Structure formats: structure tokens, C-alpha cells
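It is worth pausing here to work through a concrete case rather than discussing structure prediction in the abstract. The textbook approach is simple: state the sequence, then state the predicted structure, then interpret. We follow exactly that order.
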Amino acid sequence: MAERGQLPLPAKRLCCRPGYGAGCRPGQRAIGGSEGGLGGGALCVAGPSSSAAAAASSSSAAIAFSPALAAAYAALGVLPLGKTQSPESLLDIAARRVAEKWPFQRVEERFERIPEPVQRRIVYWSFPRSEREICMYSSFNTGAAAEDAAASNASVAAATAPGGGSSAVGSTGTAAGTASAVAASNSGTNNGFHLSGTVTEPAAQSEPETVCNVAISFDRCKITSVTCSCGNKDIFYCAHVVALSLYRIRKPDQVKLHLPISETLFQMNRDQLQKFVQYLITVHHTEVLPTAQKLADEILSQNSEINQVHGAPDPTAGASIDDENCWHLDEEQVQEQVKLFLSQGGYHGSGKQLNLLFAKVREMLKMRDSNGARMLTLITEQFMADPRLSLWRQQGTAMTDKYRQLWDELGALWMCIVLNPHCKVEQKASWLKQLKKWNNVDVCPWEDGNHGNDLPSLTNALPQGANAIQDSSNRSHRTVFTRAIEACDLHWQDSHLQHIISSDLYTNYCCHDDAENSLFDSHGWPLWHELLHKGVTSITNLEGWVGHPLDPIGTLFSSLMEACRVDEESFHVFSDFTENMGQCKSLEYYHLPAHKFLEEGESYLTLAVEVALIGLGQQRIMPDGLYAQEKVCRNEEQLISKLQEIELDDTLVKIFQKQAVFLLEAGPYSGLGEIIHRESVPMHTFAKYLFTSLLPHDAELAYKTALRAMRLLVLESTAPSGDMSRPHHIASVVPNRYPRWFTLSHIESQQCELASTMLTAAKGDVRRLETVLESIQKNIHSSSHIFKLAQDAFKIATLMDSLPDITLLKVSLELGLQVMRMTLSTLNWRRREMVRWLVTCATEVGVYALDSIMQSWFTLFTPTEATSIVATTVMSNSTIVRLHLDCHQQEKLASSARTLALQCAMKDPQNCALSALTLCEKDHIAFETAYQIVLDAAATGMSYTQLFTIARYMEHRGYPMRAYKLATLAMTHLNLSYNQDTHPAINDVLWACALSHSLGKNELAAIIPLVVKSVKCATVLSDILRRCTLTTPGMVGLHGRRNSGKLMSLDKAPLRQLLDATIGAYINTTHSRLTHISPRHYSEFIEFLSKARETFLMAHDGHIQFTQFIDNLKQIYKGKKKLMMLVRERFG
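Step two, the predicted structure:
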């Protein structure tokens, strides 16, 4: 009999055996106790060798289900279809139930005698029976992924009998995937509630074979402790522990089963016990001899502590009543790993690992594993200890987006913990205390990531919750734990919540006051109080379900989808049902048969889809802050991505149609209702998904839904009345006009994607294209997005494998024209690209489109764009060839182009005159008109550069006198100072003088005074002077007349004036340069004086003038001794 005593080690039970019970033969165990429960008295079952056991066994084997009953059980999932099964013995049924629920100490205390076969069966059934739990504790994989990994990578071969070889157990992918294959030897034994064995890891390419000793303790179908000699430290069980566990589950009959060691010792006499101890010491003398001697000394000492305790510890005897029944979890490793992941700051995949840990917590909660709360507590402690929290708070900077998402998940998981309907009151109280402690820490992150929030308490949804939490106005901010703290006041036993869960009608609702009536609708159905915001145009939930911190829609959708997810092995169980209910084409999700709480025709799959559509279509106000707004977009896209994995069948299409109609007609609830709040979250992304899903089945409804969603009221210039209902939102772009939407660019791009999708689908349908075009022009406010739509429409309309769609081309052109009008008076770096594209589009549409854009150019283009790009491209040979224009059409386009050119030249002569002249070359009247426009503008508005350019053009076209006139006009605007010897206009001046020289003496005489007045640079003047003296003026004059061959004299006008100006320029330039000259420029200055002397010598008294000039320099600048010495050396 086992008796209790004080435990020297908490994990060990004390057992003693004073003798046999009167009713038990040797080999049976007598245990005292008379408590209730299973009942006091004797529990005596014959051993396996008895005739009773044999009879029971044969009787059990003979019993089998009838085919009809077996089929019925198979349909319910109890038995595989087409198979029969014998019932279990009462011993196994009872032992299995006891092994699941009772610690073995309670079994010992309840019964006086427990026969050995009963103990064996309790021990047998106490080991975990499902691989799912083993997989959960073996790797980061969750749910089906973990099971699939285990199934494919952990195959167990048949165990060998004693004396045989070893058996292979593969475990790649489980337990951190460290072992590609492990082998369990025949030394595996099950001593009571302790499993031990050796696991061999075969040799790898660079590593030898490894043999690991594994020990596993278990209790009530849970592994309570593990040890392995491999020394690997991780959150999860090592591959060797997993291999031995799976071997025990899959091949339980090949693992030798022994009773607890205390039972074996109890059956030995004194000689056997002495021999047992001596052999044990002999085999392990180096390890246990000191401990054995110490224990022997203490036992022989009557006053020792060990003799004060009745009984002795037995690690194989199972759990005591006070032991917590939970799976082994290495808390230290959890803390170390989380701390390591956080220290990496999101690098090296640490964020992914933390998300996997959160997923593991969810999996534990799903399986009602108490370690879920333990692990989450450990994770939260490390998060709260992260030093970056203090640093960010001190610096006033926001945490990174990925880190913020991890905190959101942390808060949501705590909500799941405290709302667990199976948790005990003491547990919830303990969690609440811990949550409040974390909540009061200064660095605890706020819920919205930016500033405090004033949302009412969650418990206000229930009648008694109104006073349960302090008024939110008294709180400084809401942290990530606030919701979980508030949720602690929610109770599943609440009467109104029970009404909702059971869908009970409240038939007497009319007899109660208004406060209670608000809990029910007009038909008596119970309602949950939503957090409502009353605006002028709508009633909208402040916290939308999509983008909510707790992600209610995503969670409910995932739960329902998981309920209808079926693997291939179990699909046959309900295959008969799916034939009648309609099969989903998806390989993974199926319409499961409806349970009693589902209406006829409903399935988890249809409910999941319907829930997602309801949540996505809900009208909700755009939240404050960048992070919250990004989360709305991100959650919406994630939910739609999950929906896209489901292939639609007829049943689901009907759900889509039903929800689309409902959203269009639902009023203020719906984001697709006829009237919505100005700051309502746009429906573009959701509508695009609805459109593509409905289009093959109900095109009219698809277009109606998408067109309704195209609006973007926040960008409308005039807001509806009552827009100031949330004045704290009004900010940035224009005062009192636009709210602060940080994700506006993303929203506009989604709006553009929706419009593009509709344009693509409407190809070939004139009516729908016109409707879509009208919607785009009305609702899209970004020129860049309209331009993208125009380009998309153009590409779709001009696909290479089909004829151009003229209607879609016209839509593209209309959009392009709208872009031109929108960007005409604003700066846009893509403007030139847009203009060129529009001309290309108009060319594809036809000649009338080109003529139209030229006729109305002033509303679309700047004068420069109209002349240099539009008219020039229209008049090019490539356009004529592309459109196959006849003479009449060519002349019509040319006439429009000339009219455009003259209008542009009048409006902007500086930039359009040259283009206008070019375009009017072939029409004399138009050309003369353009030339006169240039002359009129030359006196006032045109620069010398523009005039020189046009003058050169005139000379090139054969109008030298007009070129000369324009050149003289340009000279009047020019001014070159003495040091501008590299000015870009120098070439124009030289060209103008050369042109005048070629025309004759009179023209040269007329331009030289202008040159002298405008040019002060000595080198330029000397260059002009030399050029004029090389040839006779007008050698080839107008009309081919040849002038006399006499050179012009430097002593007479006009060259005398030019020579004097040149000499004067050299003198002035010399004095100017000497004022700030440095020694490194001396040689350059000497060369400059040499050029000056050449010019001086061109005059008849030039030698004298130069000598006097040099003498003056020596006198004036005699302080520059070195320079003057160089001057004397060169010039005397």
C-alpha cells in the first residue's frame, strides 16, 4: 500500500508497502483508502493468465457490429466506413478513463486493493495517445502542418524482439528538424509512469553515429518531464524525445511495460533486495556509490531526517493529488528564446519566429492546454522587459510596424486567455492581477500606437457592465492590455449573453422600460450593444470589424474555415452528405453536413464566406494615426486573400449575390449604401473582389456594386452638412477640408485598380464603357491615376491579336483629355510624356481626333506643347503614312496646324515663334504673318538668344535680309562685358557680323555701331576686326551681284570706329586685370598684352600708342616689380 509523507523532492511520490491485503494473492497490490468517487472497497480483477480474463477476451473478440450499425457509426465519424470493430473490454474502458482524469495517488487511496492487471492497464493508458500533442511540442509548425510533418517524417518501423536488431524511427522536420533519422533500440522500457530508452541517430556525412539516452515521465495522458543526453536546449522537445514518444504511441505493445519500481521492490524478500542494491551499485559504482553510502548512513541513523518521513520517493509511481497536470514546458528556454528574438530587432527572421510562437500559443489554447497561458505569460514578461520600449519612449519615436503588430497579437491572445469559458475563477483573478501590473508600467505600449483613445469600455455591451470599469475619461490612455482587463468583467453566464447565444426570443420585451428595450430589436431578438457613432449621414461603428485590434472577422472566418477543413483520409466519412449538399471545387474545404444549430442548407463554409463579406462591407470610420490606417488596409487585403483561396460553387455564388444586394440596400450599416459618411473607409479593394467574383455569374450586379464603390468622398471639394462632427480629424492638406488620411495614396491606387478592372471587363460593351468612363471622371481626382487608366484602356483596345476596339479607344482618349485639362495649369514632371501619349492615342482614333485636339488646343496644351509636340507630330510624315491620308485630309490638318501655330505665336512669341515659322513654311501668307509676329515681339518680349535663333533659321531658309534685320534687333538686347570672353552669344555676334559683311558695306556699317555699343570684350572685338579686314564686304551680295574687290580702310568708318573701340577695350581690360592679378597669372597676362600689341599695330600710329601704354603701366604699377620686369623683358 502506498502511503503519503512529506516529499523531499517535489516531483517524487513517497510509497511504502506494509503487507498484502487479505483478499489478494501474492502478486497483487493492497492499497488502503475508503473515499468516494469510484467507490471504496476492493477492486480485484484476475490477472491476464486467469480463465476469467481469457473468457472475457474471447467473448470480446466474438462481438462485432452489424453492417447497418457499422455504417451508421461510420457516417457519424466513429468508425471508418466499410469496417467493423470489436468492443473494448470493461477493464480497458475503465482504465482509459481513470488514466485521463485521476492522478495515480487518488486511485491508490480510493481502493484497498488494485490488482496488477489493473495497474498495468492504467499505466498503459496514461501515456499520451495522440501524436498531435507530441507534434505540437516538437516544432514551430502548428495544426495540420505539424501533423503532416510528423506523418511524413516520423515513420516507425517494427520493433525487434529481445536479442534482435534495432528499429528505425525517422523524425526529420520534427523537434526542430535536427535529426534526419533516428533509431529506437530494443532497450526502451516503460517503468510505471516513466518511459526510458536509447535513441540512435545514424551517422551523417561529417558526424558520427550518436546514441542518446532519453527519459520521459508522464501523467494523465501528458508528458510531464523529459531528459535527453544529447544536451540540446530549445523550447521544443528534441528529435530523440519525439522519436521515443512516437514509438511508444505507434508501437505500444513492443515497449516492455513494468509496474512502478516500488511495486517491484515490494515483491522482493530481504536477500533479493540486498542483491538488487549491490548489483545496482556495482553496475554504476562510479556514479551512485557516494550517494548510496550517504543514504545508507542516514537510514542507519535513527535521528536522521530521512527516517522521520514514512515511505520513500518513487519517480515511476505517477503523480500525487497536488501535482499540476500539464505538459512539460521548458520555461527557461522560452524566456531565453524570446529575449534573443527581441534583441535581434526584427532581423534574421526573428519577427517570423515570434509570430510562430504566438501561433503555438493559439494552438495550445485551441487544444485547451494550460501551457498556452503559461507560455504567453513568459513571452509577455520578455516583451515588457525589452529595453527598446524605454528608449523609444524617451526619444518620442514610434516603434517599428512589425514590432507594433507583435504587440497587437500579444493583446489579442490575452483576450482569448481571459475569455476562455473553461478557465477557473482563480485563474482569471490571477491573470487580471498580472495584466493590471503590466498595464501600469510606464513603457507599456498604447493600443493605437500614437496617443490615448477615448473609446468606451467593452463591458458597456452588457447591462451590468456600465459601472464595472472606471469612466474612460479618467484614464490617461488605453494600452494593449486594456481590452483584456475589461474582458475580465465579461461572463459567459450573463443572462443577456445567454439570450444571444441561444437565439431566444424575448416575447415580453414591450413590457419593460426603454433601457431594457434597447437590448432587443422590434421583433424581440436580443441585441449586442455596438459602439455606435451618430453622424448626420450615417450611423457607423467607430471601431470597424476589419482592422479592429482583436480582428473579430478574421478570427471568426478562420475558425469557421478550420471547422470545414477536411483531410483526404477522413473525407469518406461524410462523402454521402456532400453529394446532396453540393460540393465545393476546392481541394481543401468542403460543405460539411449541417448540425442542429445550423439552418437547412447552411454549412461552415457558407457561414465563413458570409461572415467575411459582412465584415468587409461594413461602413466604418477611418481611424486616426498612420499605424491604425495601415492596419485597416492590411487586414482587408489579408481577409480577401483568404477568400480568394476558395473556389466558388453555386452555393457560394448565391451567398455573394445575397450579400451584394444587401450591402447595396442596407443603408447606414453598409459601406456600399447609397449614402455614407465622408470619412467612411472606402470599399475599392473589397468591391474589386466582389466584381471579379460576381462578373461571370451576375454581370449587372457586379457592375452596380463596383460603380457604387468608386466614390471617394473624402476628396470631394464640398463636404456634406455635419462634416465637422469629428473636428479633431480635420488637418493637413487644406485647412478644414481634408482629414488626415495617411494611406490616401494607397486608397487612390486601389480606386484606380477597381476602375481598370471594370474597363477591362467592359471591352466591347458600349453602354458599360460609357458608364465606367462617367464614374472615373466623376470620382477619381488624381491625374496620374487617370493617366494610368487611359494607358491601360489604350493597351487593352490595341491588343496585337485583335482589331482595335474603337469605343475603348475613345474612352482612352477622353481620359487623356481629362488629364490634359487637369494638369494644364499645374506642375507635373510627366506632362511631356502625357502630351506625346495623347497625340499617339488621337492618331489611333483617327484624323478627326487629331483635328479636334488642335482646334481646342488652348484648353489642353500650353503654346509650347501645342507647337513643338502636337502640331509638329501631326504634320510629320509618319502620321500621314500611319493614317493613309489623302491630299484633302492632309491640307485640312495642315490648315489647323498653321492656325494653331499662329495663335500660339501670338500668345507666346518667345517660345513659339520659330515653331510657327516652321509650320507655316509652305503657306506664304501664314509665313509672312508669323514673321510679322516675330518683328512685333522683337522690340519688347524676345531675348537676343531667341532672335539669333530665328535669324539663323531665316538665313537657312534663304532670307538673308530678314535674318540680318533680326540679327540687328538681337544685338540691341545684347551686352558683353570685358571679361566675358567665353559667353555663348559670341558665336552669334560673329555670325551676325559675318552675315552683314557678306551683304555689303552698308549693312556692315550699320551693324558695327551696334557691336561697339553691345560688346566690351577686347578679344571678341579684335576677332571681328580681323575678320572684316580679310575680305571685301559684299563679295557675294544679294541677287548674286559681285561688289568691287577693294578692302575697307582701317582709317575710315566703319572700321576706324571698331578699331578704336577694340584698342580702348584692351586698355580698360588691362587695367581691370591688373587690379587683382596674382603671380600665377603673370604669364597669361603677358600673352594678353602681346595680342593687344597686334591690335594696336593695326592703326597707323599704333606703335606709338602701344609704347605710351606700356610706359603708363610701368609707372602706375611699378610696385608689381616682378610683373613689370616681365613686361620690360617682352616689350622693352
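Step three, interpretation. The two ends are 136 Å apart (CA to CA). The chain has 47 helices and 13 strands.
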